[in-house]
Each structure stands twice: as C-alpha cells, then as structure tokens.
Write a structure and sequence with these properties.
The chain is an alpha/beta fold and about 350 residues long. It has two domains: about 230 residues, Spore Coat Polysaccharide Biosynthesis Protein SpsA, Chain A, CATH 3.90.550.10; about 100 residues. Helices cover about 50% and strands about 15% of the residues. It contains twelve helices and nine strands. The strands form two sheets. Strands 3-2-1-4-7-5-8 form a seven-stranded mixed sheet, sandwiched between helices. Helix 5 runs parallel beside helix 8 and helix 11 runs antiparallel to helix 12. The radius of gyration is 24 Å and the shape is elongated.
Length: about 350
C-alpha cells in the first residue's frame, strides 16, 4: 500500500545466492539511482552462500541517498515469490524489476526509467535481449532457443509481437501493478506478468538491452526443467486463467472447428485435420466470444455449400477468412458496449 512519503521509483531485486555479484551490483545502483526519491527493495530469497550477511553489510553503509529496504525470506521460495513480496512492500510510482546476477546492465535500467518517466502515455516497458544493438554475450543455445519459442507462442496466444517475454528487466507504472494479481512463485512469473498486463489492455513497449550470459558454474539457476515448465505456464495462462465467457467460447469454437475438420482428408489424415482444426478453434475462442465466433462458423457452413471435392475445401477456407474479417469488425464495434462479453 502506498503511503504519503511514496517514492518516484521502487527497484525490486530478488536475490538467491548471488554473493559474487552484489558488490558490483550496488556500485552500479549507486552510479545510476542514488537519489532520495528512489527506494531499493532487496528480497533475500533464503540465500545460503553468505549473500544474507553481505546484504546486511551493504545496507549498513548508511551513505546512500536512496532508501534501502532489505526483506529476508526464511526459505527459498522462488523468483516469483520474491518479486511479489518486493512489490507488496513498494511505494514508488514506477516499479523496476532488476535481477541481481548482472546478466542485464543497470545502465539500461536507468535508460528505461528515464524513458517511461518522460512519456506519461507509456505504462510498461520490457527489456529485450534480442532487439539490442548493444553488447551481447550468449553461448547457451538451449536457453536462447526456448526463450524465442516461448515468445513466439505467447505472441500467437495473445496477439502480441514481443521479442523477449523472459527478459528479467522490466519497468511498470503503479496503475499496471494495481490491476494485476501475480500468483506464480518460480521463473514462470515472467509469463504470468506479461499475460496479465495484456489481459488488462496495457500496451507493452520493448527496449533493447545488453546481455552478458553467465554459466551454471558462475551461478546461473534456470535449467531445462524451467524451460519445460514455461510451456506449461503458457498453456495455463492462456487456456485456463480466463473469464467464464472466454472458457465457454474456447470450448464452443474447438467443437465447431473440429466438426469442420472432419470433412477434410480420410483415415489418419482426417484425424489429424480434426485435431488441427480443434487447436485452431481453441485459439479462435480466445479472441472471439460466442456470437462473433458463430459468425465464423456460419460463413464456413455457407462455404461448404459451394463446389465439390477440392472446390468445397477451397470454398470453406475462403469463407473462413471472410468470417474472420466480419467477426473482427463486429468485435471492434461492440468492444466498449454492454454486449462485449458476447463478441
């Protein structure tokens, strides 16, 4: 909860066993963020390598201009839990999420803060390791591949064009924070955060940042298991964490698209068409509610009345895109009306 002495910026830094990076991190924070109207909130997520004692020493220096808040979690609860704890204890008009491992440059964080502070129309900026023309060191192929695949899937599911959903450097206006309710406690927090921002119709801007990869020997904690779990979170936030009306339209669209797919191919091919069409239907159900989705179905049905054989297939596909066009027009027309939940 914000208080009367609220700050312009809260920097939330989750820390778990980062003793080798903390001194340099705070040197950079002093360089770029050493002002009275800024608070640094460090959440020690059950560190066991001496980070806890070092953080206490850094806090007791007493020569900072910024406010230094140190929160200790008794057991390691995950990056997501640490971020949630930091946000709950923040007062700033803007909240900056900064990792402690120095893979991302604090100078970029300062540039992002200056940018969002100058433009009141911007409420959310995500750092991107893939847009940058800045220095980059990355030789971990699997993590890089999974990050790009996840971003692609996220974009398909949420009609976005983000290049890097998983980048840990983000800055949000307080109005965004007050709308969302984070629940994921591990590295899936990045997907949870991005999906909720999009659901509440905030536009996500991206800013290219430097990236200095570190190895497991240097303390990198994300593993292939987290990569697999990220696919689970993508499915969860898109197909289960929805309103009642959206879940109905997902089921409805999947059924009629599977029915449409049953008219294509034979044998195993027919089964594959049904599965593919059902998947397409589930995605349609996310973006179109029952009435607008029904328009798509009606257009496909009309298309099935024309031609024979392959001619019918082409006609159905053509009328499907026509249905998409008209359904999208109606969706936009009723967007701000009381009928929005039906279109």
């Amino acid at each position: 909860m914000r208080q009367e002495n609220s700050k312009v910026l809260s920097i939330v830094i989750p820390v778990f066993n980062e003793i080798n990076f903390l001194n340099k991190l705070f040197e950079q924070i002093e360089t770029y963020f050493n002002k009275e109207n800024i608070e640094i909130i460090v959440v020690d997520d059950g560190s066991t390598d001496g980070s806890s004692n070092l953080l206490k020493e850094l806090k007791n220096k007493n020569n900072y201009k910024f406010i230094f808040k140190l929160i200790k979690l008794d057991i390691n609860s995950g990056k997501g839990k640490a971020i949630q704890t930091g946000i709950k204890n923040s007062q700033g008009e803007y909240i900056l999420l900064q990792d402690a491992d120095l893979e991302l440059d604090t100078k970029d964080a300062k540039e992002m803060f200056d940018m969002i502070k100058k433009n009141k129309d911007i409420k959310c900026i995500f750092g991107s390791r893939y847009l940058s023309g800045k220095l980059k060191k990355n030789n971990y192929f699997f993590n890089n591949l999974v990050g790009k695949i996840n971003s692609l899937i996220f974009n398909i599911f949420f009609s976005q064009s983000l290049s890097d959903v998983h980048c840990g450097l983000k800055i949000l206006h307080r109005s965004v924070i007050e709308k969302i309710k984070l629940t994921v406690n591990d590295f899936g927090i990045e997907i949870d955060l991005a999906s909720q921002i999009v659901r509440h119709n905030f536009f996500i801007y991206e800013f290219g940042v430097s990236y200095f990869f570190r190895s497991k020997a240097q303390g990198k904690k994300i593993t292939w298991v987290d990569g697999l779990k990220s696919f689970y979170y993508l499915i969860k936030v898109r197909f289960f964490d929805n309103s009642y009306s959206t879940n109905i339209s997902i089921v409805y669209s999947s059924i009629y698209m599977a029915y449409a797919g049953s008219f294509f191919g034979m044998g195993l091919g027919n089964t594959l068409f049904i599965i593919i069409f059902a998947i397409i239907g589930s995605i349609l159900g996310i973006h179109f509610k029952v009435l607008s989705s029904t328009i798509i179905f009606l257009f496909m049905y009309i298309g099935s009345l024309f031609g024979q054989g392959n001619g019918t297939t082409l006609s159905v596909i053509l009328f499907f895109f026509l249905g998409l066009f008209f359904a999208n027009k109606l969706k936009k027309y009723f967007l701000k009306s009381s009928f929005n939940n039906y279109f």
